[in-house]
Structure formats: C-alpha cells, structure tokens
C-alpha cells in the first residue's frame, strides 16, 4: 500500500526521484498517466491492468467514455527507474501536471500521485478544511469507521 507525502524536485532533464518505499512496491516497470485534479497517477503494472480492464468495459458508444479513454490511455507511459531511483517523466505529462521544479509525491493507497507543489497546496487548502463533511458523505457509500 502506498502511503506518505514526500517533497522532491524535477531536475533539468525532467527526472523525479521516487521514495525508496515506493520504488520497492512499484517493481521494475510501472505506468504513469494523467490523473484528475491536475496531478499524475502512477500505477503498478498489476493495478494498471486491473484499472484498464475496468475502463475498457465501459460503453464506447458514449462520448464521455471515449473522452475519458483518450485522456487516460493517450497519455499513459510505461516507465522504469534509473540507477539513482529516478523516473523520466515524459514532457507531455510534465506539461499536464505543470511539473517545473518542486513536486509532491503522495501515496494514496492503491496508487501514487505526483503534484506540482503549488497545485497540491491549492488543492489541500480547499479540501482539508472540508474533510469532516467529506468523511460524513463517504459514510453513506460504505462501511467506513474513522
């Protein structure tokens, strides 16, 4: 399970170091794609395959489904670590995530998110104060016990 929040930087070549804990869990190759709210999502091969199979089952006759598939699969890249534990994020994904210098690498349980530091701070400022209300709304979805 991916947990924790780490501050890193993007180097001049577009590489980001991944925390050692995350490297172990990700394995030799993994998938990075556009995520929601402007971040990048990083999946193990197993999690990506499971997620991709679920998405592929959606009705392609619906415009929103086609748009989501393009968004998700069109930007996906299979990556691996270099000897220093860095990943080279493709330019299109760096542009999408506005990853210029400072980034936040965040474990979210089943995947990792990579955010620009500025975007994550804006997102957190909006969501953290509302977390009690968010937690209450989740109570009706499943059996969560905080």
Keywords, separated by commas or semicolons:
6 helices; 6-stranded antiparallel sheet; alpha+beta; single chain
What is the SS-derived class? alpha+beta
Radius of gyration: 16 Å
Quick one: biggest sheet?
6 strands, antiparallel
**CATH second-level architecture:** 3-Layer(aba) Sandwich
Low-confidence stretches: none
| Mean pLDDT reading | 91
CATH superfamily: Transcriptional regulator MraZ domain
Strand content: 25-35%
What is the total tally of β strands? 8
Write down the secondary-structure element order: EEHEEHHEEHEEHH
Top CATH class: Alpha Beta
Helix proportion: 25-40%
- Spatial strand sequence of the major β-sheet: 1-7-8-4-3-5
| Discrete helix count | 6
Q: N- to C-terminal separation?
A: 19 Å
Overall shape: globular
Task: Determine the CATH topology.
Answer: Chemotaxis protein chec
Strands, helices and their partners?
Blueprint: E1 5-9, E2 15-17, H1 20-26, E3 29-34, E4 40-44, H2 45-56, H3 63-73, E5 77-80, E6 86-88, H4 91-97, E7 102-107, E8 112-116, H5 117-127, H6 131-139
Antiparallel strand pairs: 1-7, 2-6, 3-4, 3-5, 4-8, 7-8
Q: Could you give a short description of this structure?
A:
The chain is of the alpha+beta class. Helices cover 39% and strands 25% of the residues.
Description:
This protein is of the alpha+beta class and 146 residues long. The chain has one domain: Chemotaxis protein chec (3-Layer(aba) Sandwich). It has 6 helices and 8 strands; from the N terminus they run ββαββααββαββαα. A 6-stranded antiparallel β-sheet has the order 1-7-8-4-3-5, with helices on both faces. A two-stranded antiparallel sheet has the order 2-6. Strand 3 and strand 4 form a beta hairpin. The longest helix is centred in the middle third of the chain and has 12 residues. It is globular, with a radius of gyration of 16 Å.
């Amino acid at each position: 399970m991916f947990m924790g929040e780490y501050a890193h930087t993007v180097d001049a070549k577009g590489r980001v170091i991944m925390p050692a804990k995350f490297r172990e869990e990700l394995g030799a190759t993994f998938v990075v794609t556009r995520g929601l709210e402007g971040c990048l999502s990083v999946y193990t091969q197993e999690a990506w395959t499971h997620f991709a199979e679920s998405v592929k089952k959606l009705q392609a006759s619906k415009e929103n489904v086609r748009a989501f598939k393009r968004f998700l699969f069109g930007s996906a890249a299979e990556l691996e670590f270099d000897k220093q534990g860095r990943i080279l994020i493709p330019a299109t994904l760096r542009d999408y995530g506005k990853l210029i210098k400072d980034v936040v690498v965040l474990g979210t349980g089943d995947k990792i998110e990579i955010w620009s530091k500025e975007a994550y701070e804006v997102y957190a400022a909006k969501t953290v104060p509302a977390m009690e209300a968010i937690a209450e709304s989740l109570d009706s979805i499943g059996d969560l016990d905080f």
